[in-house]
Amino acid sequence: MTATTVRTRFAPSPTGSLHIGGARTAFLCKLFAKKHGGDFILRIEDTDQARNSAESLIGILDDMKWLGLDFAEGPDIEAVRRGELKDFGPYGPYFQSQRLEIYNSYIQKLLDAGRAYFAWETPEELAALRQNAGPDDAYGHVRPKHLVTDANEAKRLANGKPVMVRFLVPDVQIHVDDLVMGPTDFPPEHLNDFVIRKSDGMPTYHFAVVVDDSLMRISHVIRAQEHFSNTPKHVALQMAFGLPSPQFAHLPLVFNSQGKKMSKREKDKVVKRFAKKWLGEKEGGNSIGSLADKVKSAVKIADTADALVKQVEAWLKDPDLVLPQGTVREAIADVVGVPIAERPEIDVSDFKKAGFYAEAILNYIALLGWSPGTGKEIFTPAELVEAFNLEQVSKTNARFDRKKLVSFNLTHCNDDMSGDAGRKEKQLVAFKQYLESVGNARLAGIGDAKLRILLEAKKGWRLYSDVEKVAGPLFMPLSELTYDEGAVAKEGLRKGEAGRELLAGVTEVLRGQKDWEEPALEAAVMAWCGEKGIELKEIAPKVRVALTGTTVSPALWPSLVLVGREGVMERLDGFLAKG
RNA sequence: GUCCCCUUAGUGCAGCGGUCAGCACAUCAGAUUCUCAGUCUGAGAACAGGGGUUCGAGUCCCCUAGGGGAUGCCA
Fold first, then answer.
1. If we measure between CA atoms, which residue out of A231, A235, A245, A249 comes closest to residue A179?
2. Which of A34, A264, A267, A426 does the annotation list as catalytic?
3. Residue A134 or residue A460, greater confidence
């Protein structure tokens, strides 16, 4: 046994929402740490000044919290919400943007040792090099003959061009022993002298990751496979510093059902399509200006309305342009009315809003690229900790199957609802969180007691949105209720039809009912059915239609309780009085 | 261009030299319930192609094809 404690980390960059694939990586990191009694750490890789945003940082932290991905060291969520980059843990700061001196001191060590040098090619020059590379040429950057390691000399020679630092890649074969990919040798000629400090002074990912993982005592680097080919860079850097390499484990990628990368581009495209359509409908006074106004009132953004209009105009014109701010995109989607069902789900928050249960998502994403090998699929988070191992992680890309997730969701919710009081309570809490996330104040306002009855009555739901949908008519004011004509006709409830008499009969039974509880209501109505010699199924759908206007609602008895005596009488009498 | 990885039913996985190739989701059929859902029972459905190695290959090796990743002053 090794004495080293297991420490894993998840290191997102706050340039967008938490992607479902990122959540998978984070969760497996956490599972591995927990399994070995170690710690899971969160580090924020905010070195991309152009794309970072505070809002996406908060979003990521919220999403992790919602999923239950708490960490032993990392950002202080409350402080971040207040706008401070505060964190907790002994190896901080956990924001890379606050670790600049550390990186610079390590870069200086390399410079002093002649293992790094200054460079000042422009992006255009480098692109041209790659373009024009012949079959036998080196691809991209070529190491210069004279290596400049003195800052002043570099400044002079660069002659005004921005200066960066490149790592002098050693001419040795790099061996990587990956826990998933197996042992692999990377020949030196495939590595060129990569940049370690950008001209804006920020370290590159490849550099910061090595320094941080080492200083933060990360024992296992578990990350997506897209990083595998870059691992020799990290190992080369570790060798240069004489630092031990952590263990690596590269997880297969997650793709959507079409086998493509799940990207925010997909979402963007859909929103763009609807936005164009919306702007085409001039009658409603729809213009880019009004869109910008509405978006601005929906989200807090620093941009002026004019700036926003310009940005949106450019976005609409260029099919390849993706809006950088997720919240703006969401707001536009709301304004132009993109139906929920049409919005591609790729971020954790999308699944939250669609009505998924966090534990079901965790269960499902754990199986994206990993399997216990036993055939068991349904796990609670605690069982996953027990079962997880890196050996069973596959190298094959995983495909995201929403239908299976839905099925997992149903199973988890069903299991909870047939479990003890504590598990039922978890469902209540989760359902309330859902209602909050979609802004359904009306349902949230009915109180815990009624929400419990509702959940019990709608057992077997797939998503919380199903519960919400079916409960809608029960809690609508009578004035908003609409009656589905087809349903009315089907049940023979039109004026003069026989169904109305039966309904009137039940109405009277209910009117005389003192005890407005499920068992009593059931007993009374069943007794009446017995007298009349009819079955429940002859009358229940009629009551349902009169009560909700639709043929679909929760079971009858709880529905009556939820609407309440007054509401029921008002609805039934009102329906019977109608022409 | 170069390097790396992958390929079992529609989808996700299991299999790690000898299985009637197993499971789940989805699909279809039947049963059950006051609707929807759920639940229960059953059915159809796969080793990318070609060479080897071996008594024996989905499993090991090679080639081909297809998919993916990397090769960025993104992470």
1. A249
2. A264
3. A460
Residue A19 (CA) to nucleotide B55 (C1'), in angstroms, measures: 52
Q: Is the dihedral of CA A331, A337, A343, A349 positive or negative?
A: positive
Question: What is the pLDDT at residue A512?
Answer: 87
Closest CA to A413 of A403, A428, A397: A428
Euclidean distance between CA atoms A204 and A230, whole angstroms = 13
Calculate ∠ Cα A385-A69-A456, nearest 5°: 85
Query: Could you tell me the pLDDT band of residue A137, with boundaries at 50, 70 and 90?
Result: low
Dump the DSSP string for A36-58.
TT-EEEE-B----TTT--HHHHH
Report which DSSP code applies to A393.
Answer: B
Q: Who among residues 486-545 of A has its Cβ near strand B, under 7 Å? A: 535-537, 540-541, 544
pLDDT per residue as tens digits for the range A257-288:
777 777 777 788 888 888 988 888 767 778 88
Q: How many C-beta atoms surround the C-beta of residue A431 within 10 A?
A: 24
Q: Where are the extended beta strands (E) located within A128-203?
A: 164-167, 174-178, 182-186, 195-197
- Would you call A3 helix, strand, or coil by DSSP? coil
Q: Express each pLDDT in A312-349 by its tens digit.
A: 888 888 877 888 777 788 888 888 888 777 788 889 99
Q: What is the pLDDT of residue A579?
A: 61
| Distance separating alpha carbons of residues A13 and A110, to the nearest angstrom | 26
Segment holding A482, helix H or strand E: none
- Protein chain A, residues 427-456, with a C-beta closer than 7 Å to any atom of nucleic acid strand B: none
**pLDDT greater than 50 at residue A1:** no
Burial of A190 (0-12, 13-18, 19+ CB in 10 A): exposed
Closest nt to residue A544, judged CA to C1': B35
**Summary mean pLDDT of chain A:** 89
From the Cβ of A198, is strand B under 7 Å away?
A: yes
Q: Note the CA–C1' distance, A164 to B9, in angstroms.
A: 53
Q: Strands A7-10 and A182-186: what pairing?
A: unpaired
* pLDDT tier, A496 (very low <50, low <70, confident <90, very high otherwise): confident
Q: Is A19 helix (H, G, I), strand (E, B) or coil?
A: strand
Residues with Cβ within 8 Å of A235's Cβ and at least 6 positions away in sequence, in order, are A174, A175, A176, A245
- pTM across the whole model: 0.91
Which helix (H) or strand (E) element contains residue A380?
A: none
pLDDT tens digits along A379-390:
999 999 999 999
Separation of first and last alpha carbons in chain A: 82
Helix (H, G, I), strand (E, B) or coil at A177: strand
Q: Which residue has the tokens 């109405």?
A: A507
The answer, yes or no, to whether the previous bond of A183 is cis (omega within 30 of 0) is no
CB contact set of A55 (below 8 Å; sequence gap of 6+): A325, A326, A327
Contacts 24+ apart (CB under 8 A), A240-247: A240/A110, A240/A113, A240/A115, A240/A167, A240/A170, A241/A106, A241/A109, A241/A210, A241/A214, A243/A210, A243/A214, A244/A214, A246/A213, A246/A214, A246/A218, A246/A219, A246/A220, A246/A221, A247/A177, A247/A179, A247/A219, A247/A220, A247/A221
User: How far is residue A24's CA from residue A558's CA, in Å, rounded to a whole number?
Assistant: 38
